[in-house]
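tmp note - Phospholipid-transporting ATPase
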Amino acid sequence: MASHSVNPPEDSAAAEAAPNTVPPRRGSLSFRSRAERSSSETLSVEIMERSRSRPMASYASKRSDSDKLGSQREIDDDEARFVYINDPERSNLAARLPNNAIKTTKYTILTFLPRNLFEQFHRVAYIYFLILAGLNQVPQLGVFSPAASILPLAFVLGVTAVKDGYEDWRRSRSDRNENNRVALVLVPGDREFRPTPWKYVRVGEVIKVAADESIPCDMVLLATSDPAGVAYVQTINLDGESNLKTRYAKQEMQSTAPEALSGLIRCEKPNRNIYGFLASVNVDFPTGTAATKPVSLGQSNIILRGCELKNTSWVVGVAVYTGQDTKVMLNSSGAPSKRSRLESQMNREVILLAATLFALCSIVAILAGVWLVDHRHELDTLPYYRKQDLSEPQVGKYNYYGIGAETVFAFLMSVILFQVMIPIALYISMELVRLGQAFFMIQDKNMFDEATKTRFQCRALNINEDLGQIKYVFSDKTGTLTENKMEFRCASVRGVDYSHGEEESLFSSVSSGETRKPKTSVKIDPELMDAIKGGQGIEKANLARDFFLALATCNTVVPILVETPDPSVKLIDYQGESPDEQALVYAAAAYGFMLVERTSGHIVVDVLGERQRFNVLGLHEFDSDRKRMSVVIGFPDKTIKLFVKGADNSMFGVIRKNIDLDIIRETETNLHAYSSMGLRTLVIGMREFSIDVFEEWHSAYEKASQSLIGRAKLLRAVAANVERDLNILGASGIEDKLQQGVPEAIESLRQAGIKVWVLTGDKQETAISIGFSCKLLTREMTQIVINSNSKEACRKSLQDAASTARRLKAAPDSESTFSGTGSMQTPLALIIDGTSLVHILDTELEDELFEVATVCDVVLCCRVAPMQKAGIVTLIKNRTDDMTLAIGDGANDVSMIQMADVGIGISGQEGRQAVMASDFAMGQFRFLVPLLLVHGHWNYQRMAYMIMYNFYRNSVFVFLLFCVLYSVIYTALPTIIVGVLDKDVSRKTLLKYPKLYRAGQNNERYNLKLFVLTMMDSLWQSLTVFYIPYLAYRRSTIDGPSLGDLLILAVVLVVNIHLAMDVFQWNWITHASLWGCIVATIICVIIIDCIWMFPGYWAIFHIMGTRLFWACLFGILVASMVPRFTTKALTEYLMPSDVQLARELEKSEETNLSNSSEIPLSTFSQL
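out:
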């Protein structure tokens, strides 16, 4: 299949004018086919553009900021917020800005009761019960006592309100703790920092933060403990990445004492974009003279609330966004009220039953009116109806209000009498069943995480059955699919493959009696170690040393010393923005090139036991246009070299091919082998600078770094100009350690008809590489990549993507079969970045994105902010009826988890924010398979049947006009037991055939057709229970109590036999509850008839002594069950479902009637 590439034009001016976006870059929509990849492309690590992220920093005296937004454009006054440094009064004068207090609660004391009741009364049945309770308060309609009628509803509402109130109180307590944390705030008059609660921090105030403390608000850096203004922060609560990020204070502010500093910051208004910041600052120097021109600020100059300061003694900053305006709060969505899908569908059935009830009551009222008219002259003397009150000397009316009013009363009293057609007991039974289901899920040993010793947690009891209807899974990447641990596996040095790491590295750095060792050990290849030491010639040794020196220097990794029990030994923990960089630096250390120190302008590397200092003269960071990074290093011998590393398809375009052609070919062969193993690959190159070349580069670099407008674009041009004519040093292969069982879990979910989308804040190339590793992406897939920077470019890209996707899906491909369909189609993968989503979400382009995304088999969203994750979930929820599930482990996943129908938190290494916000929590991604395919299937099947059976059971009662005692005692327990314990198929079968899960997705166990058939069945059974005794005894002298005993025994037998026919798995508890309830019914009837004061005294013994009684019972059972039995038998024989076939397979295996381990299932081959 041919490769497709579309590069829509963009309006650069419009792109530069758009806030919250990266600087202008060519929007791109690319299609990567497997034909392309098979010929030239290998699986590679293309480090994604740091969209709206930190600057490219030169570690010289004048650093540059390649921050994508900091150099984009000037901000109009109408779009700007004005922050006066160290002057909060003036900063808050023009507009009343919020203080720094946060609020995550749903309720207040005044709104709790009305809002909570409003949320609960989304259940239509509750409105029905409220109306009934109100009717029962009318004296003329008092079928039950007023208190008894209101008590059940009040109990259910009260218990739910207490639970919701407790959860909100916990959120309020957390808010108080957060708001009362203390920060050091500069008092302008006193010129000293004083402890101040976070909630009192205001925009414009200067704040000091010490090492390992959390940042109280979004603040622009003014100064740091590092003389060059460098600070390191951990952003785990924002983007889920535990690696350190580098931030900088501008030299114009770093050089002035914070208490003496003043000036004006003009920044963009608060927004959700955590990867961008657009601002400029005019600094007033102590002499009173203002800066001649504004200094641009970007993402590298702001640290956000929720970050933690690391490896930096202190920083000082000025608050620009506080409280609810901070980016972390704007990316936090409130906790929504989640309701089960089955409960929502029940509202439809409740309305239908209410209509049926209205019809029945109308018939009763009409007949009552006709009867009153026919007997209007006999009402004074009728034995059961008195019109006159003769209890007083003066004759009066006895609760009689005329025929019209009595007809209305008859209607309303019928409503109260027939109310159990919509039983409130059903909702209580559902909660009990869910409690039992949660117990078995928590106790499931297959979902126990041995590594962390944590069990499955069920934090929400009202959506258990939704686990059986999931259609979309939205997953975070880092810490959810992966362990976020990179391991150096292979190296290709000058075309020679070294991938046989067998020995543990024993290298350490010794200085002044102190020994330093890498915290993480890496297995080394003895042959490569021998080459480094010169055992294979001096030329090979020099090239190998340059290779590992490039790994040790071409990065932004920071070495942090960790104490050990031995005071003379310290471990070096490498922290950096990318786990890839950490793995490469650990590998370099293992081979004798240990990075031991990094400052703003130089680094120190222990080279084979000798410490050497290298000056960092300039650094060009990764971006998605170049797909590489480079660093200019000054060596101790005064030579200058450029080290470059990047993706293979980017690097081979800038490597010199007129020499070492054989080495390049061998390297390409090794790279292909590495990528086939699922490794992340990088190519390493080097260029030596002459003095003239260095001075030319340095001049252009400094000029671009100091540019206020278009700085990022200029720096990219400088980098592209110098990164050419490289000599190839080699390539590396890194394994990103996936969590155990992730590829198998994704494949099982895919077979079950569940689409897995990955939403990550990580780089695009990293996400793609992980996609291949976990088998989410395959080489048969054609990748549709959308990277655009304006709304029009996004529109054009989406239109092209939609037309291409439709064409590729429609065209059969003889080489690939799309899993999940029976046809031969080209599988598609959509890959889109957060920059494009800025212009798509919440606009009319959402519909076009939805069209493209739903056609694709896999969707990867890269570099997305937390609220963009929630926006993608909303995209599906608002346009389909499909159930969604979100799973993540970090605070940046909270919005997505709360937005999805089902939210799951991973108890990982990134805190407990995701767990606290989730509905369910577990230790590993692979536990999704037993949770959804086993427990989800069982929960849905049990709950759907229990609801349908309760409607059937109560409909039979209403049609027969029996007492409420029947509904509560005689038949309630078996349904709860079946709802908790019954299994249609075993765990083994559900895991063996994931496609059985589709029964829940297709609503096979609960739908309108099944509901109507059940109601018809209940009507037929009620007719047989009523008319068979009526026809048998119509000419006899049987009394009412005797006939009532027969009817109540008959209906209890019928509904329990009906339940017994539908039980899949029998055990002693099911037997005891079902047959025990029948026995209990007989005992209750006998006891009641043994009480001499009741009118039915001894009636049961008289009627049970006749043959006609037993003949009626037998006839009722046969007549009631024959239609259902016949329909059930014919359906399972002629049109068996996959679940029924799987059940037969289990039986055949148990009885050894089949010699094969598998039998074809009717629809498996078509799904």
